[in-house]
Amino acid sequence: MLKTDNARLSDHTRHQMSPEQIGRRLALLRRALGLRPSEMADLLGIPRTYWSRFEGGKRAISDTVAALLVEKFGVTLDFIILGRWDKLPLDLAERMREIERSDQASSLPKNS
Fold this sequence. Notes:
The chain is mostly helical. The protein has one domain: Orthogonal Bundle (434 Repressor (Amino-terminal Domain)). The protein is globular, with a radius of gyration of 15 Å. GO terms for molecular function: DNA binding. Pfam families: HTH_31 (PF13560).
């Protein structure tokens, strides 16, 4: 995407398309599938360091890896790139939402 194209997107969409946000969703997907990072990389046939960089938001996900995720796990490009949950398989979406809720609950400050 050209920089001028990016400027036409809403702030929300630009934020969702950031490597950091995509990486957060990739980690959520992996965890919902019950896989370790190394297992996900191996299933996709990519170097383990690539997957680590994708999840960490250090590297933008490639079209090929995004397409592999769609083919192998039924996730949508809308979810990966734009953070849209509405077309995900229900069971997968429910597992990811549960992980999100658990993560949010564990990050709340404890009352003393």
